[in-house]
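Table S2 (text version). Query chain:
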Amino acid sequence: AVVSTQSGHYGRDLEYFKFVGRVIAKAIYDNKHLDCYFSRSFYKHILGQSISFKDMEHEDYAFYKSMMFLLEHDLVEAGLDNLDFTMEIEEFGVTETRELKPNGHEIAVTNANKKEYVKLISQMKMTGSIRSQIKAFLDGFYDIIPKHLISIFSDTELELLISGLPTIDIEDLKANTEYHKFSLTSLQIQWFWRALRSFSQAERANFLQFVTGTSKVPLQGFSSLEGMNGVQKFQIHRDDRSTDRLPSAHTCFNQLDLPVYETYDKLRKNLLLAINECPEGFGLA
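Corresponding structure-token output:
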């Protein structure tokens, strides 16, 4: 679920957000699981954690790519030297300009401060534009479970607290997997499926969160797994860089980048390390 920027403008909408916050917290308190899932950034809001630019990849991939382009290129050469620290937000057909920092309309985005710009505009998209809805939800949630009690969990753990451990059919996932520069008979692929079968249900849930951004299993099975642009099967891409790297993921494409490890034990160890220690999908061993 993603919160709409327009949802706080209809009568008692904010009261509904507070009510939903109380319902979610009461379910956790009573150890009752709900068939509902939120965006990664929303779990972080509940936990009081900072939202990172990386969280944008799963929520708005086009925006994420545009910000990556900005970070990786010289602004003058790319024709992006006309930006300032403001952002346009459209509500009910009316476009409003909001400042990302005090006097933002007077501050030009430069190669020196573009990292700050990307951080602030990402936070505005995921937080600032729905601030009242988030506050109403959290007011209701914290009425039942205080912030200091829920904040001991990670965002992935919170999802499992709310929705429970899924039952993951490894054979169904395998039957609906696409390979890039690998094949089903590749040694690393055989080791990969062997490792996944050896995982506990909790570890399998962590793996699914790592590669798709959520522990939710599609009702019709993994043939109906969705990505940013509709149905997108799980993909394993060969990573020809150093085998000292951990596996990495692109959740918007349900994609795992798997280094060509030399042994089964190394593959299993690094895969577990990645899904447990690098929930955002990237890391070095």
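Notes on Table S2: The two ends are 33 Å apart (CA to CA). Confidence is low (pLDDT under 50) at residues 281-285.
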